[in-house]
């Protein structure tokens, strides 16, 4: 729906804002004094929504969100990790065999 697309866009903007902020400061999440926490399920869901179209060009995408644990990592960092993993997986398969390819995410 339009409401979900809007929420996904806002989540993506927040993730990018966090990454840009760290780049400007020249810091890594591992050296920050206080680690932030995020809802892993929400971050994974938002990231999947952002990248789904691209991934589905190469493979079917299976997503199972059974729980939503809180994890000690910045949401933008987790989102970037999930995004990179999904795009790398999509690039690693042959798109001409899309119907046989399955990339799966479970939280």
Q: What does the model show?
A:
The chain has three helices and four strands, in the order H-E-H-E-E-H-E. With 107 residues, the chain is α+β, with helices and mostly antiparallel strands. The protein is globular and about 45 Å long.
Distance between the termini: 23 Å
> What is the overall number of helices?
3
Helix content: 40-55%
Overall pLDDT confidence: 83
Spatial sequence of strands, sheet with the most strands = 1-3
Annotation, overall tally of beta strands: 4
Q: Give, in order, the helices and strands.
A: HEHEEHE
Low-confidence stretches: none
Quickly describe the structure.
This protein is α+β, with helices and mostly antiparallel strands and 107 residues long. It is built from three helices and four strands.
Notable traits:
single chain; 107 residues; alpha+beta; two-stranded antiparallel sheet; 13% strand
Task: Furnish the topology, listing elements before pairings.
Blueprint: H1 2-25, E1 38-39, H2 40-55, E2 60-64, E3 70-71, H3 75-92, E4 102-106
Parallel strand pairs: 2-4
Antiparallel strand pairs: 1-3
Helix pairs in contact: 1-2, 1-3, 2-3
